[in-house]
Design goal:
Blueprint: E1 2-6, H1 11-15, H2 18-27, E2 32-37, E3 53-56, H3 61-69, E4 75-78, H4 83-92, E5 98-99, H5 104-113, H6 123-131, E6 158-161, H7 173-180, E7 187-190, H8 196-205, E8 210-211, H9 218-226, E9 230-234, H10 237-243, E10 248-252, E11 270-273, H11 297-300, H12 304-315
Parallel strand pairs: 1-2, 1-4, 2-3, 4-5, 6-7, 6-9, 7-8, 9-10, 10-11
Length: 330
């Protein structure tokens, strides 16, 4: 049996398919599982403890369809569901095709009409429905055996993920400075080249920080997150990566909201920091390069003092009262 799973988007979106790939493997242990995605995301599949064969999206729909038709798949599970995958289905003359429900109308109402008490089911739950598998809750054991850390780390530390694809999803430098000034916790900074300047300023002001920004690759960052006592993160790909290791997590939300169904999946201790009483939020289901209103209140009004208290309490294994309901609940 040959099964194809399709998810063409960013790192976080691909990582969120991993619980589904695991359940497919459990349901069909002898099946060959293939995964169609952008070429840049194929290395992520090496994190899985079982084989999933990556197929790269080609420059044209017809070229991709030609490649896929040669495999003669028994089942195709479309976890992307956009115009490209519809055209792909048409080019393949494939009539058996399962698609994820995207709830775009609900998200549109949330961003345009600011509908209150509206939420979208977890993307992982929707993936499972499209794939016709049951979520057992079994934790995925990531394959990090051959990954080495770039430097020595303390036995116990917290990790702060600085980066985000869009600025409206990124906790600002001044808010991080306010928070770090109020808590004395061994902290590792993670991020990409875009965060090098931010990390340098923070390291100069707080010499206790362990700055791995721009030093670790994705797999080394995974290893750092796997050993962290606590992870502080924006709504970004490393948030989803961290969730596989089940640390305590503090998720910082700007223009997006947990109600979109894209929060960390399967974590036991997650707290969401967000400014809930803004009439302009959420303003996008993805993000912007800058705040459309110019004030960026969704991040600038975050309570740095409370965040610092939560970091210290969770790091020292106290049991602070949860700020909100667990992820994916109303």
């Amino acid at each position: 049996m040959k099964i194809l799973v399709i998810r063409l988007s960013a790192i976080g979106d691909v990582l969120l398919t991993f619980p589904i790939l695991q359940e497919i493997k459990v349901k069909f242990p002898e099946a060959e599982i293939y995964f169609l995605t952008k070429e840049a995301q194929i290395p992520l599949l090496s994190l899985l403890p079982f084989e999933v064969k990556g197929l790269a999206l080609q420059g044209s729909i017809s070229g991709t369809a030609k490649t896929l038709k040669g495999h003669r798949f028994d089942q195709i599970i479309d976890l992307h569901n956009n115009l490209r995958t519809v055209l792909l289905q048409m080019r393949m003359f494939q009539f058996t095709w399962s698609r994820v429900k995207k709830h775009n109308a609900t998200k549109w109402c949330m961003t345009r009409c600011k509908t209150k008490n509206t939420w979208v089911p977890s993307i992982v739950e929707r993936y499972a429905k499209a794939a016709k598998v049951e979520l057992t809750g079994k934790r995925l054991a990531m394959n990090l055996e051959h990954v080495a850390l770039p430097s020595a780390l303390p036995n116990k530390y917290a990790a702060w993920v600085l980066g985000a694809k869009f600025k409206t999803k990124q906790f600002p430098l001044e808010k991080i400075r306010e928070t770090l000034a109020l808590c004395d916790v061994p902290m590792v900074l993670l991020g990409g080249k875009e965060e090098l300047t931010m990390a340098r300023f923070l390291s100069q002001e707080f010499p206790r920080l362990i700055n791995l920004v721009g030093i670790t690759d994705f797999f080394q960052a995974a290893l750092v997150l796997s050993r962290a006592q606590l992870v502080v993160t924006n709504d970004t790909g490393l948030m989803h990566l961290a969730s596989f290791f089940n640390p305590a997590m503090l998720c910082l939300w700007g223009n997006t909201v947990p109600g979109f169904g894209m929060g960390p999946y399967g974590c036991d201790k997650v707290e969401h920091f967000q400014v809930t009483d803004l009439s302009c939020r959420p303003c996008s289901k993805i993000g912007y390069k800058e705040c459309p209103k110019g004030h960026f209140k969704c991040m600038m009004q975050q309570d740095s003092s409370l965040l610092a208290q939560k970091i210290s309490a969770l790091f020292h294994q106290e049991s602070p009262k949860q700020l909100e309901s667990p992820p994916y609940q109303r």
